[in-house]
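User: These chains co-purify. Model them together.
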Amino acid sequence: MTAPVIKGAAYVLVHTPDMIMHYGTTCALEHETNPESEFLKKVPGFIRSYEEVVKYAPNQAYIGNILPDALNDIEKPWYKNLIQDAKAEGKMGEIVDQDEFYVALKLSDAFDLVALEKTFLEDTKAKLTKKPMYTEAELAKLKEGAEQSEIDSKVKEGAEPLYMGKKLVGCVKAAHDKDKNLTAHIMVENLVVKASGVIALKNLIYRNNIPADSIEYVIECSEEACGDMNQRGGGNFAKAICEIAGATGATGSDTRGFCAAPAHALINAAAMVKSGVYKSVAIVAGGATAKLGMNSRDHVNKGVPVLEDCLGGFAILVGENDGISPVLRTDIVGRHTVGTGSSPQAVMESLITKPLDKVGMKITDVDKYSVEMQNPEITEAAGAGDVPLANYKMIAALGAKRGDIDRTDMMSFIKEHGMPGFAPTQGHIPSGVPFVGAARDMIMSGDIESAMIVGKGSLFLGRMTNQFDGVSIIMEKNTGSEESAGTVSKEEVKEMVAEAMKDFASFLLNGKQG
Amino acid sequence: MDLENQKRVLDLSEKYGKENVVVILGTSEAESAGLTAETITAGDPTYAGPLAGVSLGLRVYHAFELKDQVDANVYDEQCGMMEMVLDVDAIISEVSSIRDQYSQY
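Assistant: Joint model of the two components:
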């Protein structure tokens, strides 16, 4: 059996300032319940420009232009200390502007639900022709845009608007006149997941020179559900994304598990490759409009810009052992089981120490831990503290309790084995996976040897269970020795020897073999 | 404090009597522990949930305050790690101060 390896990772952000007010739940609910509120009047004054978003250091870490640890050297608040020479294009992804994204929505629209104004579409299409990720044939599918009057009247009839500032440049129609699961609002949410997932997968393919048709399976792991009134979460985002991204050799399916879904998907992908069912499995997720401006009330109250102004997306490719790329250790997997319980200690033990104990490793044997990597600048202003730091403190405390580290060394452990949070608070996006790309680079350049990817999820939000959830897996340096199929492993040899000895003992005792 | 949890506390105190209800918190920050304690004693300070303007005056403790009441092994297993991570003194001081002011039982 082959060892599954991380062949590449891509991370994208989509700056959607005009979606915050209409599609983010915080502002949308305020519109419904208190349309004249002071908060809503103040929000536009706290929205960042695309340039500010590009220069924002945590965003540069997310798309791979700086390592997360580099944030330790940038003075806070990061939104005031911008990286002046930052680029929208990153080593592992890009930060996409809103106009381009609206066109990407249209490219993902298989049922003619998205209408874009003629001139806007022509101008933005011209921008996209300069991007190597879009082919002429793809852009030709866009055809001609709609008249402004047509869009105006569709919005009056209930279509959801797409704004650039105050200008209405497009809309998304409902896909059914009675089905609550196909309303214009839900179609926006789902098309956004699809389109941002497509951008992530295209970045993965393009930046890693992967033949698009070589991907055999895609696992989509975001948090939305697509389906109609007879099958609300029927799916299949994965295949829909593959089709637009040009992954013609792939099929796929959706995996759900709140914020933990990407880590589940990573383990599933590793298992599929290791078993030999598929040679090349991508996991992909698009972003969530609902979470845009989720903490904007606190941000505005505290004079902080609305930092939740980007959709997040990512894609990771797991493939067969190439002797170079970091290996996913399918034998070191942590999981929170139904019987684990919900105390923080039990949770951390199940995800961190139990899998390490199985192979005789100490907490200090893992070079970097990637936990819930939310950007603390977003969460601290909302009173939720520094989430990654809280996780690192718990891992350090576990280490101290076990005697892996001295209690006085907890802070230095956190600095060495942790990192500042840098991911947008897009639910599934920050959980473990944002560091996979950087970890791959750091392992391959010899800076570190291993990293543990930890995904955690709060299942109570679905009101089906109060159970907590989480899984973890270790990625580590490739030793270069490639296992080949058909070779007998050490474990198998041990089992065979044990079996033979048992038979022999039984023969001595009973006088016959059996 | 979560609106649904406010309703649960209200329902339980109506069902069993306020004098028979003790609320144990597991909150990780002093500020949020204080706000939760205030909600179930003096009433919801944000005036958003079912306990807005309702002073239940319940007895409220943080789990850290009950260390001597539970089996040492169980406490260590459930709370030992978090005791090392969180600001225990600040949490206890916040919750006990709210209890002293508003708890009626």
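The longest helix of chain B spans residues 88-102.
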